[in-house]
Automatic annotation (TrEMBL):
<dbReference type="InterPro" id="IPR027417">
    <property type="entry name" value="P-loop_NTPase"/>
</dbReference>
<keyword id="KW-1278">Translocase</keyword>
<dbReference type="Pfam" id="PF00005">
    <property type="entry name" value="ABC_tran"/>
</dbReference>
<dbReference type="GO" id="GO:0005524">
    <property type="term" value="F:ATP binding"/>
</dbReference>
<dbReference type="InterPro" id="IPR050093">
    <property type="entry name" value="ABC_SmlMolc_Importer"/>
</dbReference>
<keyword id="KW-0067">ATP-binding</keyword>
<keyword id="KW-0997">Cell inner membrane</keyword>
<dbReference type="GO" id="GO:0016887">
    <property type="term" value="F:ATP hydrolysis activity"/>
</dbReference>
<keyword id="KW-0813">Transport</keyword>
<dbReference type="InterPro" id="IPR003439">
    <property type="entry name" value="ABC_transporter-like_ATP-bd"/>
</dbReference>
<dbReference type="InterPro" id="IPR017871">
    <property type="entry name" value="ABC_transporter-like_CS"/>
</dbReference>
<keyword id="KW-1003">Cell membrane</keyword>
<dbReference type="InterPro" id="IPR003593">
    <property type="entry name" value="AAA+_ATPase"/>
</dbReference>
<keyword id="KW-0547">Nucleotide-binding</keyword>
<feature type="domain" description="ABC transporter">
    <location>
        <begin position="2"/>
        <end position="229"/>
    </location>
</feature>
<keyword id="KW-0472">Membrane</keyword>
<protein>
    <submittedName>
        <fullName>ATP-binding cassette domain-containing protein</fullName>
    </submittedName>
</protein>
Length: 229
């Protein structure tokens, strides 16, 4: 279980302040306008920023100030962070060994990860030769190769057209369910949240103003959510 215990962080006049818990295998969508604190929360969970106070507990272990590499976290960013001078296989392998000193077993794991996202046999290609959807799959393969139980997604498919975005969210959901990943995804679209997640946190001005299950939500939406429907 991921537990956020009275987290608080102030940066450049903005304050993030919230508590909450996510059971193991739970998938939570972070919905809210730009500047509401979605990316800031993911940054704190990833270890890029430390809170001024409060704790982050993972299965009871305090990881609030754990180094980034020591956290049970893998991250998928909006732009994918692919390196154009590396081929697809090496871009994925960075999730396993940043120095790219790979053994034969490592290479096999890279190929397995690419096959898992439907890119088997494309390891020698450069990112620029791939479509936007394929590039998103490369970034997803790298995240999966890290094999961490907590996945953080920061609007990873926002640049894709609606059809591709739906396809990628379905793929992530399939993988998350198979691996029992605990997942948080920042998004601007309630439909994206519904396609992947089972719970919704609505953020406004750095605070969680709604914490609700997504099943049947449209049948009787809370007042705070009606603007998003």
């Amino acid at each position: 279980m991921l537990q956020l215990d009275e987290l608080s962080l102030t940066q450049d006049g903005f304050t993030l302040s919230l508590s909450g818990g996510i059971p193991a295998g739970g998938r939570v969508a972070l919905l809210g306008p730009s500047g509401s604190g979605k990316s800031t929360l993911l940054s704190v969970l990833a270890g890029f920023d430390w809170p001024d106070r409060g704790r982050i507990l993972w299965h009871g272990q305090d990881i609030t100030r754990a180094p980034v590499a020591a956290r049970p976290v893998s991250i998928l960013f909006q732009d994918g962070n692919l390196f154009p001078h590396l081929d697809v296989a090496d871009n994925v392998a960075l999730g396993l060994r940043p120095d790219l000193r790979l053994t034969q077993a490592d290479r096999a794991r890279v190929e397995e990860s690419l096959a898992q996202v439907g890119l088997g046999g494309l390891g020698a290609r450069r990112p620029a030769t791939l479509s936007g959807g394929q590039q998103a799959r490369v970034a997803l393969a790298r995240m999966l190769l890290r094999d961490r139980p907590l996945a953080l997604l920061d609007e990873p498919f926002a640049a894709l057209d609606p059809g591709l975005r739906t396809e990628m969210l379905a793929l992530v959901r399939e993988i998350a369910e198979a691996k029992a990943l605990t997942l948080l995804m920042a998004c601007h679209d309630l439909r994206d949240a519904e396609r992947l997640c089972d719970r919704l946190w609505l953020l406004e001005d750095g605070r969680k103003v709604l914490d609700v299950g997504l099943a049947g939500l449209r049948d009787d939406p809370p007042a705070a959510l009606r603007a998003w429907l």
